[in-house]
Every structure is written in structure tokens, then in C-alpha cells.
From TrEMBL:
Residues 4-241 form the ABC transporter domain. One of its GO terms (cellular component) is ATP-binding cassette (ABC) transporter complex, substrate-binding subunit-containing. Pfam families: ABC_tran, TOBE_2. Signal peptide: none annotated. The lineage of its organism: Bacteria, Pseudomonadati, Pseudomonadota, Alphaproteobacteria, Rhodobacterales. This is ABC transporter ATP-binding protein. It comes from Roseovarius faecimaris. It comes from the Bacteria.
Length: 357
């Protein structure tokens, strides 16, 4: 396995890019440590697949370098990068048995048959497909086909990195959690460097130790699932991660204080910076119905089982709160309390509160 370094990487699909808007990938500097589990998370069109194709060698970057364990591989073709890739749609041979599908990457490299049999048995046991080894792949269910596709990526023990490109997109929702759990288990057992590309926050947060969140070709935050949830560095991260996402509320600055709909808010720390589009971010989990606070009117209540989401209007702005207590009826006057240590300001999207450490 390998440590992967992306150094001053940029890419444009235009022959003569002039400004930042011409780049599908803006300046990226990133290190992925050997043996880690990582995710690239973001909406369609944010640059995830472009970055994956650059790492795999299918695309040459306009600028910058890619290094594996310090070795520059920027100009190497895919077959010389020692990468295994698992795609959205299972890449297996339907006419072959499961055993032969798993063995194919090793036989293709001239590995001794004794070693092939050993590795196939090991991977089949990890995937819990031993009983299917002599079954033709054409007869497998979609989730088992994707299992075998994953196994083909893991069967080689000489790869630098295993990359997963939206591997659960075509899997039925009730089976996704099984494959997510299996993939996490496989990583813990083989300790291969794995990069998982997805637009699904649940997949990213349950698989990865570190998540790279992308928007419009730019990395807006890198962190653990807890860090991304607890302290989003950008309003996009707060909005994209969480269900429902973070409340992002219009605000004004007045004498060093931050006001929302005319009400002064207590923030997690000192307001930093000047000018720009000022917003306040707070997750619905940290907004509560209270006896005192911001006066509001209930617009909608959604009971989602373990808790309810109350949407209330503070002036002209909707604010979501998560509650498990008694639910107010639509139209009722309530008060909303914001937890100060989870209330933060953002300027032009980026966090603008400083916390003493």
C-alpha cells in the first residue's frame, strides 16, 4: 500500500484556461496516509470523479503532481500505478465462476496457482461467499455481483490503493447497509489504503476515517465524521452533512454583535473578519423549544420516528429544530433557544468565529 500525495493539483478540460472558473479542479494539496480509509464526498459535478481519474492515471492533470510513497507517478499510465478500482456497476465476467472471477487479477499477472488458490479462499471467506465459488457470476444477485467486484479489487496484495467509485449506487437500499458494513470490516482486516467516492453522506461517514468534502472543484473541509458534523468550516459542509442540514441564517453585524431578525445572538467565540455576506449557522440538533428565546411561529412539524423536526418562522426566516418532546401544533407561537457553543458566524461561506483553545 502507499501514502498518496497530491501536490498543487489543478485541472481544466479547456485547452487554455484563464481564470479559476475554467478549472474543474482548483488548487488541491492533500496527503492520504498509508492504510487509511478515506472518502471523497460531494454533489454531482463537484470534481470527485475528475480527481479519481487523475489518481488512477486515466486523466493527466493540467498542473501539479501525484506521488505514491514519494515517487512521482504523474506521467505513468494506469497499468504502472498498481491501483485496483471498483466501479458503480460490477465489473465481473458473467460466464466465469465466482472462483475464476476472483482469481483473474492474479492469474493475469502470472501468480503461482498455489498462491492464487490461497488468496481466493481468503477473500471468499472475508466476503462470506465460499458457498458461491463454483456458481457462474451471471446467476448472482446485484449485491453479490458487487461483492465479487470488491473482491477482485482486494485479492491482490501488491496494490498501492483500492478506489471505490460510487460502488453502491445500483444496490437496493435495504442491502446497502450490509455492503457498507462489509466494506468497513474488510478495511479493518486488510488495512489497505482505500478511497471511497460518493455523493451519499451516510456511505462516506460510515466508511471513512477522514472525509474530504468537495464543492465546485474545491476542497472545503477535511475531517473526521465528528469534526464535519460538530464544527463545519463552511456553510456548504453544514448544509450538505446532516439530516436535516444546518440552519444557515441571514445576519447583520452591529457594534461587534451579530443580529438575526433583529435579535442578538450569543456565538461560540469572537467574531472575526470584516465585511462579506454574513450568516449564522446552527444545526437543528442544537435548536430547542423553550420558555424564552427567539419568538417564532410553527410552520410545519415532521415526525420522523425517533424525533420530530419542527420548522418555525422567526420573522421571515424558517428555522428547523429537532425535538423529542411534546409537539406544538401548526401556527402556535413558540420560543427558540440556540445553544451558544454551537452557534457560529460565517463570512462568504467560511467560518468567522474564533474559539480560544
Amino acid at each position: 500500500m502507499a501514502k498518496i500525495t497530491l501536490s498543487e493539483l489543478r485541472h481544466s478540460y479547456l485547452p487554455n484556461p484563464k481564470g479559476a472558473e475554467d478549472y474543474a479542479l482548483k488548487m488541491i494539496d492533500l496527503d492520504w496516509e498509508d492504510g487509511g480509509a478515506y472518502a471523497l464526498l460531494g454533489p454531482s459535478g463537484c470534481g470527485k470523479s475528475t480527481l479519481l481519474n487523475i489518481i488512477s492515471g486515466l486523466l493527466h492533470p493540467s498542473e501539479g503532481r501525484i506521488l505514491f510513497d514519494g515517487r512521482d507517478v504523474t506521467d505513468l499510465p494506469p497499468d504502472q500505478r498498481n491501483i485496483a478500482q471498483v466501479f458503480q456497476f460490477p465489473v465481473i465476467y458473467d460466464t466465469m465462476t465466482v472462483r475464476d472471477n476472483l482469481a483473474f487479477p492474479l492469474r493475469n499477472r502470472g501468480v503461482d496457482e498455489g498462491r492464487v488458490a490461497q488468496r481466493v479462499a481468503e477473500i471468499a471467506a472475508m466476503l462470506e461467499v465460499e458457498e458461491m465459488l463454483d456458481t457462474r457470476a451471471a446467476h448472482l444477485s446485484p449485491d453479490n455481483k458487487q461483492k465479487i467486484s470488491m473482491g477482485r479489487g482486494l485479492v491482490r496484495d501488491d496494490v498501492n490503493v483500492v478506489m471505490f467509485d460510487e460502488p453502491l449506487t445500483v444496490i437496493d437500499p435495504h442491502l446497502k447497509w450490509k455492503l457498507r458494513s462489509k466494506l468497513k470490516e474488510l478495511h479493518q482486516r486488510v488495512r489497505a489504503t482505500m478511497i471511497y467516492v460518493t455523493h451519499d453522506q451516510t456511505e462516506a461517514l460510515t466508511f471513512a476515517d477522514q472525509v474530504v468534502v468537495m464543492q465546485e472543484g474545491e476542497i472545503v473541509q477535511i475531517g473526521t465524521p465528528v469534526e464535519l458534523f460538530e464544527r463545519p468550516q463552511h456553510t456548504f459542509v453544514g448544509h450538505f452533512i446532516g439530516s436535516p442540514g444546518m440552519n444557515v441564517l441571514p445576519a447583520v453585524e452591529q457594534g461587534g454583535a451579530v443580529l438575526f431578525e433583529g435579535h442578538k445572538l450569543a456565538l461560540e467565540g469572537k467574531l472575526s473578519g470584516q465585511g462579506g455576506d454574513l450568516r449564522v449557522g446552527i444545526r437543528p440538533e442544537y435548536v430547542s423549544l423553550a420558555d424564552t428565546g427567539l419568538p417564532a411561529t410553527v410552520r410545519k412539524v415532521s415526525d420522523v420516528g425517533r424525533h420530530a423536526v419542527v420548522e418555525a418562522m422567526v420573522g421571515d426566516t424558517p428555522v428547523k429544530a429537532i425535538t423529542s418532546g411534546a409537539l406544538p401544533p401548526q401556527g402556535e407561537a413558540v420560543h427558540l433557544a440556540f445553544r451558544p457553543d454551537q452557534t457560529r458566524a460565517y463570512r462568504d461561506g467560511w467560518i468567522a468565529t474564533e474559539v480560544d483553545t
